[in-house]
Design goal:
The N and C termini lie far apart (about 40 Å). The strands form two sheets. The protein has a three-stranded parallel β-sheet, sandwiched between helices. Strands 1-2 form a two-stranded parallel sheet. The longest helix is centred in the first third of the chain and has 18 residues. By secondary structure, the chain is mainly alpha-helical. It folds into two domains: about 60 residues; about 130 residues, HAD superfamily/HAD-like (Rossmann fold, 3-Layer(aba) Sandwich).
Length: about 200
């Protein structure tokens, strides 16, 4: 988010983090292109924009360690200990997902499946990513719990017909969408409590 905001300022597209959260968070590259062409046509060149932004992102990842949410490693350890199947369902590319995992020190082999944008025609909020993961794992929807921190992620899980827990983050989730989640948590470790209750 900060990378995009700072680069936008450099090329004359004046946005801030609040603008990003409200208008761009969770959007695909195609959707962002349409938005920028509509609102910032004079300052926006699609090819140059993404080439430069991806270069900046690569440099940032190379020179900085990605901070993971508090409680992530504890949750993964809990899931592995209790023999849960674990997956990542992401609108990011497979390469970026692997790079982020490696950078943050999370072993990619901890996950039974990673479903990225290459697997589907439509990313979140479409349910395709979750439905693909369910198909690959050959599990029942009633046995799946999604953990999401954005509107598009929550919508994707709900449309796929699976239960979802909302982890509070920067995205402001409307009350109507939050009510469709089985729970809202401030810390991802709280997911362990939910799973314990479901096991009892």
């Amino acid at each position: 988010m900060n990378l995009m905001t700072n680069y936008n300022r450099k090329i004359g597209i004046f946005t801030n983090n609040d603008f990003y959260i409200k208008n761009l968070l969770g959007k695909t590259q195609t959707e962002i292109n349409k938005y920028y062409c509509k609102h910032f046509k004079k300052s926006f060149n699609q090819t140059t924009y993404w080439d430069e932004l991806l270069k900046l992102r690569h440099e940032f990842i190379e020179n900085n360690q990605i901070t993971i949410k508090p409680g992530v490693m504890e949750l993964i350890e809990y899931l592995k200990t209790n023999k849960y199947t674990i997956g990542i369902v992401t609108s990011n590319s497979a390469d970026l997902t692997k790079t982020l995992l490696n950078n943050s020190g999370i072993d990619i082999n901890l996950f039974d499946v990673i479903v990225s944008r290459e697997f589907v025609l439509k990313t979140k909020p479409s349910p395709e990513l979750y439905l693909k993961a369910i198909n690959i794992l050959n599990v029942r929807k009633t046995d799946v719990l999604a953990v999401e921190d954005s509107k598009v992620g929550i919508k994707s899980a709900i449309k796929a017909g699976i239960s979802v827990v909302y982890i509070e983050d920067i995205d402001v989730i409307p009350v109507g969408i939050r009510k469709k989640c089985i729970s809202s948590c401030k810390n991802i470790k709280d997911v362990m409590k939910i799973l314990n209750e479901k096991r009892d």
